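Aim 2 progress update. The chain analyzed this quarter is reproduced below.
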Amino acid sequence: MCVLIVDDSSDATRCLQSLLTARGYPHARTAASGQEALEFLEAEAAGEKKIGVVLTDVDMPGLSGIELCQRIKAAPHLRDLSVLVLTGNTDEETLERAFAAGACDFIAKPVSPTELLARVRSAVNLKRELDNCKARERQLVEVTQQLERLNAELHRLSILDELTGIANRRFFNILFNQEWGRAARAVLPLSIILIDVDFFKNYNDHYGHPEGDKCLARVASTLSSLTRRPGDCVARYGGEEFVVLLAHTGVRGALVVAETLRKSIEELALEHACSAIRDRVTISLGVAAVVPERGYSAEQLLAAADQAVYQAKREGRNCVRAFQGPPEEARATGRGERRASSGLQA
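Predicted structure tokens:
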């Protein structure tokens, strides 16, 4: 670590430089004035052998040692330097001004070599410790930022479906419960649209699972792009099933949205050679809506939308149907069970 000696007396700087060089500080530099010292510090700031300690006389023409200390401490890239002041005047006022300017210590003139070396060593250690603290702070900031990025990524992975990139069922359940409570407090309607890709098993069997995955991703992207309001959510519900949550929306509004979604998937014109109804991929949609109140449950609303999808499939697929009747009448019977009993295929 380099020491910069600042004194307008060339004899004093040569003496101090020789002493420091002989006692383990071979890179000691000199400056004949406060202004020259500042210019030297600016030039050395980007160098490999940076100055760590400034040893300056207090009484110098032009920029005094105390003013030099003030300028150093005011510069963000220099303020960490340890500044020692040399003074023949050790009265309380001078020392108070020096410490107020940011000096870490003082050395009385005439200089004692033992005292000089001890105080310089202390200032060097102080600067090294400060540099180590700064390095640890930077490392801590970097580690913190890395942890924040990892946590953000973990959160993203925990709420998104890996295949389609849209919300997963876990996140949908959380949001659904939140919106159910909000709608109940505000006495506002809440709608659910359940969606099935028609004859998707046939699609997978014919084109293979990789193409089936691509198909689901295209369908999910299209559905997601058409529902952008705050409180709305499109999620993968499982397999070839998707669910749409529409906040502040009654059954009429939900039917309009559902029909828009149905047409958009049909207009994608994704080839489906094994569909029994079209030559392209289509979807069946079930709509249910309710103003949450006592006696209703979120599960009943889902069951109502589930039964509406079943009705859409039974009546030809590639269509939208709404649950007829109060949601509390819907039974949360497994869809696979109903399909098996009726012979319907996905």
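DSSP finds eleven helices and ten strands in the chain. The beta strands are 2-6, 29-31, 51-57, 82-87, 105-108, 190-197, 233-238, 241-247, 283-290, 320-322. These observations will guide the mutagenesis experiments scheduled for the next reporting period.
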